[in-house]
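Quick look at the format.
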Amino acid sequence: MDPRPNQEETITLDTFTRGLWKENPVFVMLLGLCPVLAVTNTTMNAIAMGLATLFVLVASSTLVSLLRKLIPKQVRIASFIIIIATFVTMVDYLIQSISLDLYNALGAFIQLIVVNCVILGRAEAYASKQKVSTAIINALGMGVGFTIALLCLGVTRELLGAGTILGFQMFSVDFEPWIVMILPPGGFFVLGAWLLLFEYIKQRKEKTHLNVEGVASHGS
């Protein structure tokens, strides 16, 4: 989570991209793991939860930023939760009207977006201190990063656990699905594998960067 900034941030590419890699909500900050583990047994569930969280994150960050000078400090957390809950209710009814099967598959985790640390953390530590445009761009990056993480798990679990992606068969009839992957333990297995891969790539990049700096300093 970002430290509370003392002044408004200038919009740069990093404002958006930090949520994709450097501060990815799942693979770096390990936030919102309940829905990540619970609803990613299929790709469609991952997409729906990711888009729902993205909408709530962007909408709540926008409104918090707009009202940041009007909300008293003493009730800011309660105010943020009310704002977030309003948009979560909108998403809840929208998904229910689009597909009851999807709504039932996601269960209570749609309503639990209200207490998702990713969203409340962005509201408290970032949107409440930044202008609207900056808050929106940062929220978009965080939301997209969260959705990508959900997709990484959802695609992997459905592919290995059912041999399909979005219901389309990807392997021959001889493929034996790994049923454990679409069961609760599979979420932990796949999340652990993705965390290992993410950390490995991160360390490789840091090592390469240090080597480049070492060569440059040696050459000078």
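Next, a different chain entirely:
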Amino acid sequence: MKKIIAILLVLVSLTANAQLKRADTVRTNLEVKNIDTVAWVHTGTLNIGINQGFLHNWAAGGEIASATINGLFSGSLNRLYHRHIWSNNLDMTYALFYAYSNAFIPRKMDDRIDYTSKYGYRLDTAKDFYFTTLFNFKSQFTKGYDYEADMWDTFSTSKFFSPAYFILAPGIEYRKGTNLSLFLSPVAGRMTVVDKYYTMRAPEGAFGVENGKNVRFELGAYFSGRYMVDITENLSFKTRLDLYSNYLAKDYTDSLGNVVKKDNPGNVDILWDNLFAGKLSKYFSMTLGGTFIYDNDIPYVSTTTDPVTGQEVEKDEPGMGLGWWQVKQVFTVGFQYKF
């Protein structure tokens, strides 16, 4: 009896080991090839960073006490079934800054929700090309404020679902395993949703939605490219480029017919996302990220109101030369969990 049990345990161990090796083989192959198989493939990274500082009688000056908490999640889940593929990507970030000088009232430094789901069917004539339908959703978790404005806490500049962006697009996708994806759609529909609280505050509205309205529909061409690579065993790089051109774009005019904002299909919306992730130890990592956005619907205002004189003056802030570009750069050292 003992011999039988021992043999069964060995068989179970060998079977489990074989299944594990097969899963590892499938994952490795799918990273660079399009294998005709049935499998679930997932990746995920959670980073949490905390920075804290305290000063007393510090000759160089500085914030007496401060803390920064930030979190980043990036994950993907892919279902492969022979010539069918269903891929899902979710990116979420959030960061808060606390300082003694403002009574430790939290100030938001980062806030993002970005989810993409694609269903594709591999073509007969070319194994790396798929007929794909894409859905994308973007928004944020909490309210945003202009901390440079007087009485900034009395009004918000954005909040959850304001704005919220939705894209639904059929098109052709070139895939090379799970590491490279190039998607192009000539007829992509995009919808922007914003609370009227924000669109009523300016003649041109907000986030591309007209004054007094809360929804905007667009139809245009859409490109989305993603690429991931392991530079070394402990360093990886991920990049994404999204381009959108609205065929229906036109100048915005007020009730008197005056142009308050110029727009045309040539004003291509751009999102370029980059992330380096380095492993320092089993549970600690270093991440460096940079995001660049150009959106004609979100202009840059280079002046502000002087609180003493009440006159319009030029802003004095870093990065003014970047104009309408939205730029975000983050560097984090902290806890990391991969699965």
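The chain has two helices and 16 strands.

See the schema section for token definitions.
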